[in-house]
Amino acid sequence: MAGEATSVAAKLHVPVYVGGDGTLHDIEHDIAQVGVLTGFAVRGQTLVQHMQERVAAIRRGVDAEPPVPVFVDNGFFYTIDPTGPAGALITMAGGVDVAADAELGKPYPLAKLRAAGPQAYVAVAGRGTTLSGLRRSPATKHLPAVRSGRFLLIDPTALSDHGPRVVATLREIAHALHPTASLS
Length: 184
Description:
Number of strands: 4
Number of helices: 8
Strand order of the largest sheet: 2-1-3-4
Radius of gyration: 19 Å
Number of domains: 2
CATH superfamily of the largest domain: Nitrogenase molybdenum iron protein domain
Structural class: alpha/beta
Distance between the termini: 37 Å
Strand content: 5-15%
Mean pLDDT: 94
Oligomer: single chain
C-alpha cells in the first residue's frame, strides 16, 4: 500500500505522507508529523502529549491488576494478529491474548478456546458474535467470560484505527478487562 501511494504520488508530482504500521508509537509520530507538514505543529504535539498522558493513566490503572486472559473474536472465531497493533492494545489494556498461537486466516479451534478459558471476550460488532449467541451455543456457553458476562462488543474500525481514537479504544478495552481499576 505504501509503495502504491508513493508511486502514484511520483506520477502526479504531489507530495505524500505514508503513515506507520498502526502501533501507538507510530500513530503518535504520524500525528506530530502531519501537524508539522500542515502548519499545525503545536496542535499536533499538544494532541500527542494529551494522548500520552491518557495512555499513562490507563497503564497506571492496569499495572496493579493481574493480567486478564482474553479472546478477541473478529467473527466466526477468527482472531487478531497477536503481534499486530490490536494485539499490542490488548496487552497495554492488561490482557493476555489466549489465542496468541492462532493460525492467521483460520478460525481459532473451539477446543483450544475452551481449554484456554478466557476471562474476557472481545467481539467485533457486526460480525455475528453476541453474548446471547455465545450463551446459547453448547461450544461456548461454559467459557468463563461468557458465564460471567465479561463481554465487550467493539466497533469494527476500533482495532485498526490509526488516529487519536486509539486511546479511547485502549481505555474501553482496559475498562472491560479491569472494570474496577482507576483509568483516569
